[in-house]
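Mods, move this if it's the wrong board.
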Amino acid sequence: MIKKAHDAYNSQDFKTALELYTQLSDEGDADAMTSLGYMYQNAQGCQRDDAKALELYEKAAEMKQPYALFNLALLYMNGLGGVEHNQFKAHELYMEAAIREVPQAMYEVALMLERGLGCLQNFSEAAFWYEEGAKRGHLESFNNLGVLYKDGHGVEMNETRSFICFKKAADGGLAEGLYNLGMLYDQGFGCEQNHDMALDYCRKAAYKGHAKAKEIIKGLQEEGKIVF
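Not the wrong board. Structure tokens:
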């Protein structure tokens, strides 16, 4: 029945999905609790009810449902849904979700470790979790791992690996990845210096709304060095 509920949700038949998730949730299905909580949180087929969403996430998280742990972490990280902002609790929950192979949780754990938010700053641990996220195709993880390889934080500086990581993020269409790859081509870092390629990637990043890339393109246009 959970597949039927997911199918109804994915086809935006929220009324049916809500009924099925509710039934399954009452029977103790942690996956259904998580999905139902998300529906209450986002007013899909029902009135928004943050308290109900929190209750469902907490019940599912007790059963170690990966995305319930992740969604609960988001609430604590941002002080939403009736819980107080608590970075330490958020980190703990993100870590539990990351261990259970939620790629976005791997990225969030790594980001907190890199910045020392809710935990002790640890660049090598951050690199480990960015790599785990990257292995699962998470674009932001590729990009941030590329930064660590470029700067030599938590890993030995490695121009080739930095280039590969930024290229993966750029190929996936991530604006920050496009910009960073452009900067590598501009500097000849991990690749042969190529200003045309640098400009091309910078344009692509600007088109996707990257602030620094937009400033660079605008400046070049004002200086008359490029026409578009």
